[in-house]
Amino acid sequence: MKSREAKLSDVPSITKIHKKLFPDELPNAHNQIRSEHHRVFVTLDSQNNILGYVIYQVIDFEAEIYFFGVKEELQGKKIGQELLKFSLEELKKDEVKRITLEVKESNLKARKIYEKCGFINVGIRPRYYKDEAGIIYVWEDKTI
């Protein structure tokens, strides 16, 4: 398993995973990969099949996770955690000091990954999602 920055050729695989995980929200991965304000990372298996992805918007020294997903059948195998750790290290190289995100209150798997990677629950946004609250998480670079 290895992680790297996404390429345009990864867009179909990212979109396929995303459609299964978030059918109501489609990322514009093609434009996000090409945008100077977005960073997209993927994790691949030994045959270079994409197992998961994370999409950030980055502005100056801050970033926000827009989408983060791992193939459903592979969840719980630390793929997401390793991808998130890799992406945090890459963003630190670009001097990103703070990252925020919202996650569904009921998404305990994702919340556990964020917390293991140093994100802190700082609040709640009632009705942020169509059917439930969003939990706000923040990660800050402690090396500064």
Sheet/helix structural class: alpha+beta
| CATH fold topology of the domain at 2-99 | Aminopeptidase
Assembly state: single chain
| Shape label | globular
Our estimate of the beta-strand percent is 25-35%
Strand order of the largest sheet: 1-2-3-4-5-7-6
Average pLDDT rating: 92
Number of helices: 4
* Through-space gap between termini: 30 Å
Element pattern in H and E: EHHEEEHEHEE
Main pleated sheet: 7 strands, mixed
CATH top level of the domain at 2-99? Alpha Beta
- By CATH, the superfamily of the domain at 2-99 comes out as Gcn5-related N-acetyltransferase (GNAT)
The low-confidence parts are none
How many strands in all?
7
Radius of gyration: 14 Å
What's the architecture of the domain at 2-99, going by CATH?
A: 3-Layer(aba) Sandwich
Q: Tell me roughly what share of residues is in helical segments.
A: 25-40%
Provide a descriptive summary of the structure in words:
With 144 residues, the protein is of the alpha+beta class. It has a domain at 2-99: 3-Layer(aba) Sandwich (Aminopeptidase). It is built from 4 helices and 7 strands, in the order βααβββαβαββ. Strands 1-2-3-4-5-7-6 form a 7-stranded mixed beta sheet. A hairpin with a 2-residue loop joins strand 3 (50-59) and strand 4 (62-70).
